[in-house]
Design goal:
CATH architecture: Up-down Bundle
Helix content: over 70%
Order of helices and strands: HHHH
CATH topology: 3 helical TM bundles of succinate and fumarate reductases
Shape: elongated
CATH superfamily: Fumarate reductase/succinate dehydrogenase, transmembrane subunit
Largest sheet: none
CATH class: Mainly Alpha
Radius of gyration: 20 Å
Number of strands: 0
Length: 130
């Protein structure tokens, strides 16, 4: 029998967000984003088969501010999912479950993701500007 208005099971109102929970949720979201990115890649590839005008339209979409925002987000998703996936592989092998190691590897995932996304974007703009 439930007593009062107490929740029957723990929920987001009970627990503080921790780096492990935030990274877990973000890992799932980036996985969905990467699956969705297949649509953008397919559009880009098929536009090339429909001729020069269709490909120019696709290129103009991806070079617009909105397209660039999408590409930056997908680049972030790729690096995050890669780094956090490697972290999960270590967990599958039974390593890295100590609280300090969990926090350090979580921050390492974030630093790697931001650094590699920034480096990739800097290299892309340097090549495009050259």
């Amino acid at each position: 029998m439930a007593h009062g208005n107490r929740p029957l099971s723990p929920h987001l109102q009970v627990y503080r967000p921790q780096i492990t929970s935030i990274l877990s949720i973000t890992h799932r979201m980036t996985g969905v984003a990467l699956a969705g990115s297949c649509l953008f890649f397919a559009y880009w590839l098929t536009s090339a088969t429909y001729g020069e005008a269709a490909f120019a339209n696709a290129q103009s979409l991806f070079s617009s501010w909105f397209g660039q925002l999408i590409l930056i987000g997908l680049t972030f998703s790729l690096y995050f999912h890669l780094a956090n996936g490697i972290r999960h592989l270590f967990w599958d092998a039974g390593h890295g479950f100590e609280l300090d190691t969990l926090r350090q590897s979580g921050w390492l995932v974030i630093v790697f993701t931001l650094g590699m996304t920034g480096l990739t974007m800097a290299m892309a703009y340097a090549v495009g500007a050259g």
